[in-house]
Amino acid sequence: MGFKKLLLFVCDAFVFYGSLALFITIRYPNDFLYNWNLHYKIFSILFLILIFSFYAVDLYELDYWKSKADLFSKTLKVVTINFALAITLFYFFRTPIAPKTNLFLFTFLFTFLFLPARLFMARFLRLTLPSKKALFLGNDKYFQKISDFLRENPHAGYKIVAFAPTEKIKSADKKIKIISDHEKLFSFLQKSSVKVVISSLNPHLTKESVSSLYNSIPLNIEFLSINKFYESINTRVSLDTLDEFWFLENLAKGEKKIQGMIKRGFDFFVSLALGIICLPFIPFIIIAIKLTSSGSILFKQTRVGLVGNNFQIIKFRTMVKDAEKNGPQWATQNDPRITKIGKFLRKTHLDEIPQLYNVIIGNMSLVGPRPERPEFEEKLSKEIPFYSIRHLVKPGITGMTQIRSFYESTTEDAKDKLEYELFYIKNRNFFMDLKIILKTIHQIFKASGR
Question: CB-side exposure of 377: number of CA atoms within 13 Å?
């Protein structure tokens, strides 16, 4: 967790327990300590649930101040859901406190205090924790890509103030210092307030630049390759900057056996539990499919899995019968082939319930790259470099691209999708999987699937 996110968490904890103290003071003015001891343990469970909920709806992603309406909307959704969960918790498990009045009063106080506190923290983080000043070393193509992103996303915490290009540039932002002589880099860094140097250069081919940067080590400046920097601000890699050595350095170490066993055990038992939970919905889904369109209930299709092996994926049918009579084609946004009930099933991810069987038998994982069809796989492998690397891990029901409702209808879309998938493959761990699952749950509640 970054420093800014940690501050937000501390602020949330302060508001939560402050609201609890205020509520107890109002409700039980003559016996505060007794009632504090009675309430704080059970409310701490509610706090943990609340924090997971905030995490799932991106309230720790540091860009919520782009829209106050979005902050209000997300907060009210989370508070409402958690209020319902709390009522359930109090009624199904014996607790020595009165749930209705207490929860209502506490929820009102927390919401009333949380919203202004978050808005204050947004202003505080922007004013007191200014962006790190950065120098970009490399060519104009990468510079424009990074600087445009940082300009649109000031919460990322970086601001490019200088550019040391490797070739002549036609035009430049007048607010950015241009350093054309790389031998003068050290002199500039000495005098400037630059804290980060981002480089897209091969250090073995740029002797003057490396010499200047080497001399700058005592200046306590952070040096980042463009790959590392791009990953840190985008949660994706940049295919344009990768070479074979990047894959050897980051992906050739293989998956640890213990980590693999934990993931497989988690996949199996969670899929089994979800399957049991979803059983009551299945008859209604079957009836809805049969009443609204002709054709089979289940949809089977060949997909490419681990190390390129094909398997049969199983889903509830969401398209009209003979949807691909003219040949294989990508699904698109507002695809006319999707039935009315199919749109609902896709948005709520209910069409993917049968895929739990794929996870249980080991063809898929709960979290991983989206499995592609062999017909598209062959084409994409020829057009996109390193495409087949995505098969180093099992495909997943959900993943980095699925939680973004990613539509893949062109080769360029597939390339963007691969950048997210490579980031996942490189950085995957149990907590990342848990985060993606939480975001998927949020998608299901707001019906934003694809």
Answer: 17
